[in-house]
Amino acid sequence: MSQEHGGRRRNEKGRERNRSGNRSFSSAAPAARKRKADPARLVAFEVLRAVSADDAYANLVLPTRLRRHQLDARDAGFATELTYGALRGQGLYDAVLSRCVDRPLKRLDAPVLDALRLGAHQLLAMRVPNHAALDETVALTRAEIGAGASGLVNAVLRKVSARSLEEWTRELTESVTDETARAAIAHSHPEWIVRALRQGLAAHGRGVDEIEALLAADNAPPVVNLVALPGLGDVEEVLARGGAAGTLAPDSVLYDGGDPSRIEAVAAGTVRVQDAGSQLVARALAAVPLVGEDSRWLDLCAGPGGKAALLGALAAQRGARLEANEVAPHRSALVENALAAVPGQAWDVVTGDGRRYGREDAKFDRIMLDAPCSGLGALRRRPESRWRKAPGDIPELTELQTDLFDAAVAALRPGGVLAYVTCSPHPAETTAVVLDALSRHPKLKALDAEAALDAVALEPTGSGASVPGRRGEPVPGARTAQLWPHVHATDAMFMAIFTLEP
């Protein structure tokens, strides 16, 4: 049985049957055409479908699909590169595809567009022969979408394969006069994000001419960073399995040997996957000298728990106790899981709106405010996020950041230390929040965050920028710190550190 659907014929499984007069075929003869999808490409297709249809996060879906299809290390690596590459390059690939399709891309069925993106990435940016990229993508389409769609995919990808990535990029940008628009196309970023990153470079003391290097770093597959929890973990097992000692953060390892969860120490939670930038800001907060009591620590927005685990391990070594707060029970559960390897007497997980700390009497010696933010500093690790965000998200986030900051100041004891951290270099989420907070809280004093980072880093970061006073002059001894993917090979972590004067 077959059924008519939207002008196309589909069989009982909902797959298209090609009965039109304009039929296209892959390079293989009919008898030789593959009818089954290659498992690695199928995994990538399933992840892209989950991302586009369900707003899923690729880094959460991909591991489950890899395990479900039982891919070996080589195929898992291929599937990972294909998935993340297609997501990072989506803007550029869609611009290419729009030149090769006879209708607006929004009129294509979403699964077909995902298959085309996978094919485009193989043809333009992977070491896959053109015939293999074509035949395998057509086979994937035939198996997962239908024969009718496979003809379209074959015809479009043949047009894509007629030029190299460099040739396509040149054709797409040759008539574009606006520098930001040209960079957005060439580096596959939304224009508003390119502008925001340029502003971030300027606001944090770097040249805007670094924008090309920053955008390129956003598109480079990041190496997995791991950290051994102080007093609990050991990096030797990771080093023995081909890892390389990190050059920026203590007890860190760079690992590209496949799924790190297969490493015993990682499975046990004593060695954790965590970006080196996140490691440094947590260590920096814990290392700032204090006068007086140093027993009560607070992680105000602790989920999913990476910084909390590192702070908890450091607190355990010092006889302190960490209170890790999260707003929702499911995120609190993630934090508890992250802290499971840390001695229980060193931490407690609580659930509630972090703004309530401004209304309570509890005072803390050290506070980590890793505030909810746009995440523009982690685009290389969350490639789909660049296509989901919008400029209108920023005002709502900065309002929340401001409220949480006020709560953190209210919960800080005089002489205590507060770290304000975001995974974003956007000035509205970094320097503007800092300056507003200093103007609202006369007893709040900004410290030298760059010096705090460098005190725990294995090499100088060169990450600092001065904090301007009310008249624009630099405040003596007050500096913020901003890490960058193209400079430090970390996420673009921002940190400012404060103390509260009596």
What do these coordinates show?
The protein is α+β, with helices and mostly antiparallel strands and 502 residues long. The chain folds into 3 domains: 25-160, Orthogonal Bundle (N-utilizing Substance Protein B Homolog, Chain A), CATH 1.10.940.10; 223-274, no CATH class; 275-500, Vaccinia Virus protein VP39 (Rossmann fold). The protein contains 20 helices and 16 strands. The strands form 3 sheets. Strands 8, 9, 10, 11, 12, 13, 14, 15 and 16 form a 9-stranded mixed sheet that branches. The chain has a 4-stranded antiparallel sheet with strand order 5-6-4-7. Helix 1 packs across helix 5 (110-125), helix 3 (73-88) crosses helix 5 and helix 9 (179-186) packs across helix 10. The longest helix is centred in the last third of the chain and has 19 residues, at 393-411. The N and C termini lie far apart (80 Å).
What tags apply to this protein structure?
502 residues; alpha+beta; N-utilizing Substance Protein B Homolog, Chain A; globular; disordered N terminus; 4-stranded antiparallel sheet; 3 domains; 16% strand; Rossmann fold; 20 helices; MeTrfase_RsmB-F_NOP2_dom; MeTrfase_RsmB-F_NOP2_cat
List the helices and strands and how they pair.
Blueprint: E1 2-5, E2 8-11, E3 16-17, H1 39-54, H2 58-69, H3 73-88, H4 90-98, H5 110-125, H6 130-144, H7 147-160, H8 165-173, H9 179-186, H10 191-203, H11 211-218, E4 224-228, H12 236-240, E5 244-245, E6 252-255, H13 264-268, E7 271-273, H14 276-287, E8 296-299, H15 306-318, E9 321-326, H16 329-338, E10 347-351, E11 364-370, H17 393-411, E12 412-422, H18 431-440, E13 444-446, H19 449-456, E14 464-468, E15 474-482, H20 485-488, E16 494-500
Parallel strand pairs: 8-9, 8-11, 9-10, 11-12
Antiparallel strand pairs: 1-2, 2-3, 4-6, 4-7, 5-6, 12-16, 13-16, 14-15, 15-16
Helix pairs in contact: 1-2, 1-3, 1-5, 3-5, 4-5, 5-6, 5-7, 6-7, 9-10, 14-15, 14-19
